[in-house]
Design a protein that fits this description.
The chain is of the alpha/beta class. The protein has 25 helices and 22 strands.
Length: 766
């Protein structure tokens, strides 16, 4: 039985009450009557006291349990002195890079430095270091040696084992040995955070805390933890007593990814010996029928004390096949209901990862989001504009997690596949708080969503099946028969929300999972007629089967069905509304021919994409494993039968794939002409409507170096074709991470909504 989130007794400092803002200076601490902080959170983001921002959610969560929490926001990392600003914490430093991975935040998919940062006042760049978690953790250690350091957030979660690093084009170690942190909290951090903080406050040493789910740490090669459960029942009958287990089972991951020995089946028609030869041999116990309950207890107990040893860092660094294999095993061990512990050698020690955290219940989610947030940036920022705050201040997060399993997305590695939903009452309460307390509110809620717009309250129909399932996606290659796809709770919430006094409009800006939506015509009608502001983002990602199979995305048939329903619902109320489809260039499994076919589809449907983005490999994603290894970890990779994956790495080819998405841009025509000639498709070069690109080249275009963006490609909307709007957003489903879009979903997510994390808030379509 998992203890309730707030089951621990409150810390003695609860007597100080609630702070208007968590303090960022000694003066603020003194005003609150504090002589020290129990926990100091170090973050790469500006401090905005709102549940969309990890440091605020974590801080208010700890405050609710009576701990004094201070925040060091965007410190100068060139020395340890800024990390001493609030003094020494009595318990620990909590370190996060912020809502985004610091490398994704600072660099484009072409490895170019971004000119701004959405999470910094006035979008000022260069306010955080590369690999911020590692740098901050080291400075905390330098500032106060001996003080425990706990790391978390999307950056730490996605680097908890050896991982491919796109920016250095190398396989890097886990963030644990590099940061020298005592503990890493991955995934949804609330349970682990409160458990660890409580035990530290009670006097337990951080080096002894080794049994908390959702945590990772460094251990000797031969280390094994105390057994977590009793053994199978000894004796027979319902009154049998458990006996303690004193040993763990270590399994090599390579034993899980290859077929075992195939024993010959017993011939059921063979004659059974009789007489003396059939007697039970001396000293052998007679055969006993084991009851089902006992078999299940045995299996669960053994699984709970099993650890899987992944290939070590040096092996995955030098062997792409073993890297792909390790990625596959890692993802298969991601269901909290059946995941086993993992360990991976890094030099003289191992990284040990406990199983993922147990998801929050709806009442627990409500309690987290109902905490007394100020719902504003810290006053020290004055009138400075923080783009990420401007984007989400009128939006509400209704759920977290995603069971889509898209291989390019970081949500599943971080938040998991089990949907955690707030209650309708909690969501309505937050809408009313926005209406009554947020300056500048005009009556329009910009989003009710999350990683996707329409997975609210969706779950497996059977808890037993859910705990046993090891599928990487509930919707690929088809929607699972055991998945509840009922949109009724979401429809009811929409209707209740827009009926609130003072609410003029409820927009849905999070990306829509349209293959789920088509199963509920009533939902599509409700969405299109009341909650679309002229444009709706969806993400087919591609038109061709090859790349779609590597993305784990549905085919275009689902898109066509949804498009028909969308247009019919719009016509029924006399509205002109348009779908904005997003596509990815240069995703693993994509060939030049695939991109050409996609360009032809875009031209046929009069779509002119504006901002586009090539595939960005983020640490530990399955698509990143494909990119690095050129093998498919969705299937077994050992035994010499790994499926090869075509990968685009060369700069010219990546630019070509992006150019196909913007076939209408004259600056791309020289590159496209050259490629079409090489592909034997000169028939697509000409001056009629049937041709993809023209023969002529307008003066002043196509002169700059390949890959250089024109002003229009950076942000100006392309001229609509046939009177239809262009898709003026990037093919990845959002603008560059430094410029948040209205509602984020996925790769990589932008504005988190949970602890030490990178979550939602800026829209990514599915």
């Amino acid at each position: 039985m998992t203890p309730a989130l707030f089951s621990h007794r409150k810390h003695w400092a609860a007597r100080f009450g609630t702070a208007p803002f968590l303090p960022m200076s000694r003066a603020e601490m003194a005003a609150l009557g504090w002589d020290a902080c129990d926990v100091i959170l170090v973050t790469g983001d500006a401090y905005i006291d709102h549940p969309s921002f990890g440091m605020a959610l974590v801080g208010r969560l700890l405050e609710a349990q009576g701990y004094r929490v201070g925040i060091i926001s965007q410190p100068d990392w060139h020395s340890a002195e800024p990390f001493r600003a609030l003094g020494q914490p009595t318990l620990y430093f909590g370190v996060t890079a912020g809502n985004m991975d610091s490398m994704v935040n600072r660099y484009t998919s072409d490895r170019k430095i971004r000119s701004d940062d959405a999470y910094t006042p006035n979008a000022e760049p260069n306010k955080r270091p590369d690999r911020a978690v590692t740098v901050y953790a080291q400075r905390c250690r330098e500032a106060f040696p001996g003080t425990p350091v706990i790391i978390g957030s999307i950056e730490a979660s996605l680097r908890r084992i050896a991982h491919y690093d796109y920016w250095s084009d190398t396989v890097r170690r886990s963030v644990l040995p590099d940061s020298k942190a005592d503990l890493l909290i991955f995934g949804n951090a609330e349970r682990a955070l409160l458990e660890i903080t409580y035990r530290l406050a009670k006097g337990e040493k951080i080096g002894d805390i080794r049994d908390v789910r959702g945590t990772g740490f460094m251990v000797p090669h031969d280390w094994l933890p105390p057994s977590p459960q009793p053994s199978p029942l000894k004796g027979e009958g319902a009154n049998a007593e458990p006996k303690p287990i004193n040993s763990w089972i270590e399994v090599l991951s390579t034993e899980l990814d290859t077929p075992g020995a195939i024993d010959a089946h017993v011939d059921p028609y063979a004659m059974t010996p009789s007489g003396p030869t059939a007697q039970t041999p001396e000293g052998t116990a007679p055969v006993r029928i084991v009851p089902k309950a006992e078999r299940l207890a045995t299996k669960q107990a053994v699984r709970a004390r099993t650890v899987i040893r992944l290939p070590d860092y040096d092996q995955v660094k030098n062997n792409p096949t073993l890297y792909a294999h390790a990625s596959r095993v890692f993802h298969l061990e991601s269901n909290p209901g059946n995941a086993r512990a993992l360990r991976q050698a890094h030099g003289e020690r191992d990284v040990w990862l406990n199983p993922p955290p147990i998801p929050l219940t709806t009442p627990e989610m409500d309690a987290v989001y109902d905490l007394p947030y100020a719902r504003a940036p810290h006053p020290s920022y004055g009138d400075a504009k923080i783009p990420a705050w401007e984007m989400i201040r009128f939006s509400v997060n209704i759920m977290r997690g995603c069971f889509g399993g898209c291989t390019f997305c970081s949500i599943t590695e971080h938040e998991g596949r089990i949907i955690q939903s707030r209650s309708e009452d909690s969501v309505i309460k937050e809408i009313e708080a926005i209406r009554d307390k947020t300056p500048g509110f005009t009556g329009v809620i910009s989003d009710l969503g999350g990683p996707t717009a329409n997975m609210y309250r969706m779950a497996c129909k059977s808890e037993k099946i859910e705990k046993a399932c090891r599928r990487l996606s509930c919707v690929f290659p088809d929607i699972c028969d055991n998945l509840n796809t009922d949109h009724t709770p979401l429809i009811h919430m929409y209707r209740r929300a827009r009926a609130l006094p003072g609410i003029k409009k409820i927009l849905i800006s999070s990306g829509l999972r349209y293959d789920l939506a088509v199963r509920s015509p009533e939902y599509v009608k409700e969405l299109v007629q009341h909650h679309v502001g002229g444009y709706l983002k969806i993400a087919p990602e591609h038109t061709e089967a090859g790349p779609l199979s590597k993305m784990m995305k549905p085919g275009m048939g689902a898109y066509d069905r949804f498009k028909d329903m969308f247009e019919a619902a719009s016509r029924a109320v006399g509205k002109k509304q348009y779908l904005i489809p997003y596509f990815i260039a240069a995703h693993p499994g994509t060939t030049d021919e695939d991109m050409l076919n996609l360009a032809l589809w875009l031209k046929k449907h009069d779509f002119r994409l504006d901002q586009v983005q090539t595939f960005l490999p983020t640490p530990m994603a399955l698509a990143t494993a494909m990119y690095h290894t050129e093998k498919n970890p969705l299937k077994k990779v050992l035994g010499g039968k790994a499926e090869a994956v075509s990968v685009v790495k060369q700069g010219r080819t990546r630019r070509l794939h992006k150019a196909f998405l913007r076939y209408h841009d004259a600056d791309n025509w020289p590159l496209l002409r050259e490629a079409l000639k090489e592909m034997g498709r000169e028939d697509l070069i000409g001056n009629s409507k049937k041709h993809l690109i023209p023969l002529y080249q307008p003066a002043g275009t196509g002169r700059q170096p390949e890959g250089t963006r024109t002003p229009r490609a950076e942000g100006k909307r392309a001229k609509p074709a046939s009177g239809k709007p262009d898709a003026a957003k990037p093919a990845s489903g959002k603008p560059s991470p430094a410029k948040p879009a209205p509602a984020n979903r996925g790769r990589p997510p932008q504005v988190p909504k949970h602890p030490l994390s990178q979550r939602r808030g800026g829209g990514k379509a599915r």
